[in-house]
Amino acid sequence: MKYLYLSLFFLFMALSCTVYWLLKYALFPFLIRNSSRLTVKHSIASIMMRITAFCAAIFILIEFCSFLFLIPEIKRLRTENPAFTSIMQFRGEPEVLKPGFIDFDQIPVALRDGVLACEDYDFYNHYGYSPVSIKFAFVQNFKHGSLVYGGSTITQQLARTLYLTPEKTFYRKYRELFITIEMELLLTKDRILELYMNYAEWGPGIYGISDASLYHFGKPVPDLERSEYASILSILPNPLKWDTVTFHQNEMLEKRWKQTCRFYGIPY
Length: 268
Prior knowledge:
Order of helices and strands: HHHHHHHHHEEHHH
Number of helices: 12
CATH class of the largest domain: Mainly Alpha
Strand order of the largest sheet: 1-2
Number of strands: 2
């Protein structure tokens, strides 16, 4: 546990120093080189710059403390299943809503493997972030000219589902970074995958693979067939707009479905 605190502390300190250095030296380098010939205007700018750098460092320090307070809550995830998540709140769901939970061992291995193949094939080898996925997402987004691939690992997606929102902002990604680190250090990989599959959004008001199975196919998870695995995994990127019948109208989801079918060795 002490290594987690030390890791987060040094990470935040490094980030604080980097922000301060960039604001102080990179933003106004002429203030450093020509300090003896500063005009009044430049002197005011120098003071404002130093105040900004100091406030940025204080902000990061406050954020560090907020993440420390989150550690006990993440530790409880080892044995407790949340009744409500931030994504449910963001969607305006009633707080009594609780997704049906299915234990890790009861989720078919083939379905778990399909999730990994579609969402995060290197899940058991990385530490919360996948440089390969980030690079792939960057290339694909550049090709499409829009944000169609996120490059997020399963741990990042779980952090967003439980504690953040789906809004695409730099601040959310920043917070996601540290929550992901905490999860990777405090939870086992199997537990992270179990939580992900039980809280991922699979339709309007549908959270978790158990509820998704009943909603889309009218049967429990153990009774699903591999063709149904392929369909239900295909809609995961955008389950609010597409379902297991209509997703064929979307080129990207259709391609994802075909890839999943090939993974399972079934015709399409």
